[in-house]
Specification:
The structure is a homotetramer. Chain A has about 375 residues and is of the alpha/beta class. Chain A is built from 11 helices and 14 strands. Chain A has 2 domains: about 190 residues, Rossmann fold; about 160 residues, Dihydrodipicolinate Reductase, domain 2. Chains in contact: A-B, A-C, A-D, B-C, B-D, C-D. Chains A, B, C, D: Catalyzes the NADPH-dependent reduction of N-acetyl-5-glutamyl phosphate to yield N-acetyl-L-glutamate 5-semialdehyde. Chains A, B, C, D: Its main location: cytoplasm.
Chain lengths: ~375, ~375, ~375, ~375
C-alpha cells in the first residue's frame, strides 16, 4: 500500500451526486489539533473522522498508558492515514501549540488541563462530562468528587448545535453533550419548546450498544456476557440524568419530571431512545412541527410519518434520525430517536463543534452515508 | 436536514494528515453511471461509495421488483445523498446513455444486456459471475445453464487490478472478481508467481460474513439461524472454485490442486481467508516477498511480521490486509488475508476498476478508514 | 452415537442438588401428544422440552411443507432423540388419537381444526392467537378476517397459570398467551390487582429477539438486516396490544390506557419488558408485594431489590424474572420483566399448561437452569 | 418461585420419547463433589450440568476472589438450583471430604492441590492443562514455568473417553482434554488409527467462540472488539498444539506433522474444526469408517454423507458432531468437527469422566438436546 495513494486532492469534491455547485476557490488555513486520551473509542473515532477532514491536521495525541506506540499499531484501520502519529505523554506546552484540543478522557482530566490550554489560546472541546453540568455542586453529587474547575463553567458552552449554534461559533470551551442526552434532547426539544406535553411525566427508555461503556476491560462488556442478552441498568439514577434534565428544563423553561431507564443492547454502536409524553397542547400536526424545527439542521433528519428509524441507518454518520408517532390518535406522543453513540453522540458532534468554531462547513469530514448493512 | 449541507466542495481535500501536496487545479468531467439491479447489498454499497466520489453521477438505477420506489426509502442511510434517485425498470436505451454501467445482478443478466450496452459505447462493469470464467463450457458446468454471451468473452477483462491494471485501463467490459477469489488470489499470488509452493496441494479455508449470501430472504441467512453458529458449506464444490483455480493457474503457469472450503460466520461483513501451502522454493524472506510484490498497490496492505489481521480492520474499506506466517520455521506457509466482501470483494473493486478505466486516482471515493469498532 | 445411550431412566432424579426427598414410586401413564405445524421455532422448542419430559410421547407432528422429512433432518440438534419421528400431512383422525395436540401454527389453523379434535376427546393447546381474545369481533378487527370458531370461545381458557391455574387444570382448550402479553402481564399484575397505579397511563416498552418473528424467510429478519441494529416497530398498533389490554383489564377490573411499543433487538431469544406506571396507592413495599404475589409460582422469580434481570438469565428456561424499581423514591414505578420468548413466552408455557391439565408436576421437562453464558 | 417445585423426582424419566425400557429400581448413593475455581465459565457450566444430575451433590465451591458470595448472585440462571451454595476459600480439608473434586482453574493450581486431595482419597478431575501433557519438560516449555507435580503424571489419565474409557473408569486423577484437542482428535482418530492419511502434513484450521478465552476482563474479548470480526491468532504456536500432537502421535503410532491455526469467531460458544489430510490408504468408504469407529460412542455423532454440522447443533450438549468429505473424489479428506467448547470441550467431558469413574450412565446430566435456535 502506498501512503500517497491515499493522499488525494479532491478538487471538485461533492458528497451529493445531485448538484454540482460552482463555488470560488479559497485557500483555507489548515488548523492543528491535539487529542488527549486517544486510546478509547471516542479517540479512534475522532481520528477516523479527521482523516476525512481536509482542513485539520492531528498534531499530537496523548496516552499515558500507550505513550510511544504508533496509533496504527493500536488501530490497524488507520494504517495509511496516520503512519507517523504516535501516542505521547500529555504535555501542556505541546498541546498548547494546537489550535484546538479534544479531550477524550474520563471525567476529571479536562478539569485539570483545560484552564492552562485556554490561557495559551487553545480552544478546548471536551468530550467528557466535566463541563456539561452548569451547577458545580450538582456535578459533584453525581460524580462523587469536587468539581475541579468551577471557575471555567461560565465560559463553557454546551455543544449541542441544534440549541447553541451561535454561542458555539464564539466559544473557547465546549462541553460536548453525552450520547443519551443528545438522543433524548433532540427527540423532545420540539415538544418542550412549544409546550405541548406534560412536563411532569416524561419517560425516556433508552437502548445503547456496548461501546457506550468504553474500551475498558470490564467483565460486563465481554461478548460472552453482553452478547445475546438485553438488560436495563442504573435504573436508580444514571449520570446522564442530570444532564438530560438540565437540557429539558432549559427548553421547557420550567422544572421537568423525567424517568430515564438505559438498557444495554447486544450491538457495538447505536443508541435508540424511545420517548413518551402526554400531549397537553395542540398536537394537530406533530410531523410538521418536527420538520419545521429541524428544517435547517444538517445533523437531524426527520423521517416520514409512520417511520421506525433503525440505529444502523446512522452507523458511522453524524446524524440523528427522528420519527414522531401518536398511537391510536390518543394523547400519548412517542418519539423514536436514533444516533450513533460514537458519532453524533460523541466524536462527530465534537467535530461538528470544531467546524462551527473555525468556520468550516458544519458537516465537513462527516458527509459519507452510514455504513449499511 | 438540508441536502445542500451535504454538498461540500472540498477544495483542499486530503485524506492523509501527513502531507499536503500542492497540485494544479484541473476540471474533471463528471461521468454518468447506471446500476442494474440496485436493490441488493452490492448495489447499496456502490451507492454508498459513489456518494463520496466527486466525479461520478448516478444517473439511473434499475430494479424490476422495486421500480418506482425511491432508493432512500429502501436504504434510509442514503437519505440526503440520493433524494431524487428512484429505481426504474431496466431500459437499455437509457442505460446506454451512461458512460458506464455496473451490473449488480444474479448471473445471467449481464449476459443478456452487456452486448447491447457495449455497442452503444457504454463501458460495462459486471459484478456478477457472468464473465469471470474464460472458458464458456466451464462456466456452463458450474452455473447449470448455457453461457449467454460467449462472443464477449474475448474482450472481457478480469478486474483484479493487482494483476491486470494495464488491461483494465483500456477495457470496455470488466468481470469484477468474486469475494473469495479476491481474498485467495491476493494471498497466494506472491508465492505462486515466484514458484515457492507445491502447487498440487493448496488449501484455502475461508470464512465469510452473511452478506456474502446476498439480500435474498433465505431461512439459512436469518439472524436466528446464522447467528451464534459456524458451519462449513459447499465442501463438494463452490462456484468460486473454478474462478480461483483459473487465477492461480494463471499465476503459477501450470495446473494447481486446490481444496477450497468456505464457512459461514456470524457477522455481517468480512472474509477471512486462511491459506496453506508447502514451501518448496527459497523462503528466506517471505515478508519481504509480500511487501515488494504489493509495494505499489493502493488496495493491498501487507501487515508487519507476526500480525493477525482482523476482518473489522477493513470494514467498509477497499483494502486487502495480508500477513504471512511460517509456523515453527517449518515448510508450511500460512497466509492470512482479509477483505470486506462488499468492498474489495465486490463494489469497491468495481469502483477501483471504474477509476482506472476513466483515469481517476485509483482509490477515489474509498479513502476513508475502515469503521472500527 | 447410540440412541439407547440417551435413554436413561433417572430413577432418583432430582433437579435440585439441595434436597433428596423420598417419595413413593408411582407408575404414571405416558400420554401421547401431537404437534400441528412443527417446523417453526415454537415447534422445535416443544420437541426440545418434550425430549426431557418422562411422561409424554410425541406421536405425530405435522407439516404440509415438510411432510415426509425426518424432524432430525430439519433440526439436527434432535438427532438421538426423535430418530423415528417424521413430519406428516395433518390428519384429524390420527391427531384425534392423541391425548393432547399442540398447535404451533399461524393464526386461523386452530380455528379450523380444534373443534373436531375436541369432539374426539383430544385436548387442544393452541400456541397461536386464535383463542386468546375473548371477543370474536375484536379478534376479527386485529387479524383482518372473520373469527373461525367463535362457538369454541366459551370453553377456551387463557393459559396463564399465574392467573388461571385452576381453570387450566380442567380445561379442554387452552389459548397459550403471546410472548409480549406474558412478560407484560406478569410484570403488572401485582400492581393492578392491588390498585396501586394509574390505569389510564401505562407504558410497556418491550424488546424482543428475532425469533419472535418466526422462522419465515423475511428480509427484515436476516442477520445482515437485524444484526447490529435496534428499531421500534408497529408503534401504531401491534396484534398483541388487545391481548395485553384484555389481561390488564381483567386484573384491574376497569378499562386501562396502555401504550405498547415493541422493539426488534439483535439477539436470537429473549424479551425484556420495561413497564412504567404512576403510583397512586400505598407503595411502601413494592418488593414485598411482588414477592408475596409470586411466592408459590414455580415459573416466576422475583429478583432481590435493585436487580436488573438479563434476558440471558432465562435463556432456554420457563421462567419470568422480575425486578421492581421506584427511581428516586418518586411516584413512578418501573418493572423489569424478562422471559425467553420461545419458552415462557410460547412452548414452555404450553407445556406448563399440559402439565397442569394432566396432573404432572408443573415444571416437568423444564427444570434445567438457563444456558448462560 | 418455590425451590421445591424444581425438586422433581422423575421416577420413570427417559430422555428419548421412543422407547420406555422397564428397568429395576436401584438406590444409587449420591456422591459429593467440590469445584475449585468456580467463578469462570467452566465452573458455571459444571453447575448447570450438575443441576440436572440426580446422583451428585455439589458440596463445596471455591473462589478466592468471590469467597462469601452466593453462586446465584454471580450467576442468576442458577437461582432455585443452588440457593444455599456459596463460594468459599479453598480448604483442602473440606475438599478432601468430597468424593471427587473438579479443578476449573488456571494452570498451576491443580499442580499445587491435587496431590493432597488424592492422598485423602478424593478423585481429581482437572479441567486445566496441568496434567494433559505426559512429558513434564514439554509442559514447562509451553507454559513457561516448572511442572509443579511431575510425580503425579504417572497416574494421570487423559480423559478422552473415546480413547481411554477403561482407564478412566479406574482412574483417580483425570486430565480433561482441552477444547481444540477434543474437536481435532475426534475428527482425526479414525483416519490415523487406520493409517489412511499422510501424517507428515495434517492441517487443523479451527474456529472458536469467545468463551474459549475465559471470563477474564480482556480488551480483546469485549463485544466491541470481538464482535462482527474474525481473526486468526497464535499462528506461531498455541498451547493446545503439543496436546493435540501428543494425541495424534498416540493414534498414529508415529510422529506427526501438524499445522494448527486457531481463529476467534464472533459467537459465544462453539468450536468448528476443519481438518485436512492427504489420503494415502484405501479410502473407499470413509463414511463407514467413521460410523463404525463411533458406533458405540454416546458423545460422538457421525452425520450423514454430505453434511455440514453447525456449532449450534451442539450448543449446551456434550456431543461432537462429525462429517467426512472427499471433495471431487480427490486425495484430500476434509473432516468437519463441531463441539460446544464449554461442554464436550470442558465441563461436559469432565462430567462424562466422573460418570465413568463412579459407574453412572455415561451421559447422565447431559441428555437434553442442544438449544437451537
Amino acid at each position: 500500500m502506498q501512503a500517497h495513494d491515499l493522499v488525494y486532492h479532491t478538487l471538485r469534491a461533492t458528497f451529493s451526486n445531485e448538484r454540482h455547485l460552482s463555488i470560488p476557490f479559497k485557500e483555507y488555513t489548515v488548523i492543528k489539533v491535539g487529542i488527549v486520551g486517544g486510546t478509547g473509542y471516542t479517540g479512534v473515532e475522532l481520528l477516523r473522522l479527521l482523516a476525512q477532514h481536509p482542513e485539520v491536521d492531528v498534531d499530537v495525541i496523548t496516552s499515558r498508558s500507550e505513550a510511544g506506540l504508533s496509533v496504527c499499531n493500536l488501530y490497524p484501520n488507520l494504517r495509511g492515514h496516520y503512519d507517523r502519529l504516535t501516542f505521547s505523554e500529555p504535555d501542556p506546552a505541546r498541546l498548547g501549540e494546537c489550535d484546538a484540543v479534544f479531550f477524550a478522557t474520563p471525567h476529571g482530566v479536562a478539569h485539570a488541563l483545560a484552564g492552562e490550554l485556554l490561557e495559551r489560546g487553545t480552544r478546548v472541546i471536551d468530550l467528557s462530562a466535566d463541563f456539561r453540568i452548569a451547577d458545580a455542586d450538582e456535578w459533584s453529587r453525581w460524580y462523587g468528587q469536587p468539581h475541579g474547575a468551577p471557575q471555567l463553567l461560565d465560559q463553557a458552552v454546551y455543544g449541542l448545535p441544534e440549541v447553541n449554534r451561535q454561542r458555539i461559533r464564539g466559544a473557547r470551551l465546549i462541553a460536548v453533550p453525552g450520547c443519551y442526552p443528545t438522543a433524548v434532547q433532540l427527540g423532545l426539544l420540539p415538544l418542550l419548546e412549544q409546550g405541548l406535553i406534560d412536563i411532569d411525566r416524561i419517560i425516556a427508555d433508552c437502548k445503547t450498544g456496548v461501546t457506550g461503556a468504553g474500551r475498558g476491560a470490564k467483565v460486563g462488556s465481554l461478548l460472552a456476557e453482553a452478547g445475546e442478552s438485553m438488560k436495563a441498568y442504573a435504573t436508580s439514577g444514571h449520570r446522564h440524568l442530570p444532564e438530560i434534565r438540565q437540557g429539558l428544563v432549559h427548553a421547557a423553561g420550567a422544572p421537568v419530571g423525567l424517568t430515564f431507564v438505559p438498557h444495554l443492547t447486544p450491538m457495538i454502536r447505536g443508541i435508540h431512545a424511545t420517548l413518551y409524553g402526554r400531549l397537553t397542547g395542540n398536537a394537530d400536526d406533530l410531523q410538521a412541527l418536527f420538520e419545521e424545527r429541524y428544517a435547517d439542521e444538517p445533523a437531524v433528519d426527520v423521517m416520514p410519518p409512520g417511520s421506525h428509524p433503525e440505529t444502523r441507518s446512522v452507523k458511522g454518520s453524524n446524524l440523528c434520525r427522528l420519527a414522531v408517532h401518536r398511537p391510536a390518535d390518543g394523547d400519548t406522543v412517542v418519539v423514536l430517536s436514533v444516533i450513533d453513540n460514537l458519532v453524533k453522540g460523541a466524536s462527530g458532534q465534537a467535530l461538528q463543534n470544531l467546524n462551527l468554531m473555525f468556520g468550516f462547513p458544519e458537516m465537513t469530514g462527516m458527509q459519507a452515508p452510514a455504513l449499511l448493512p
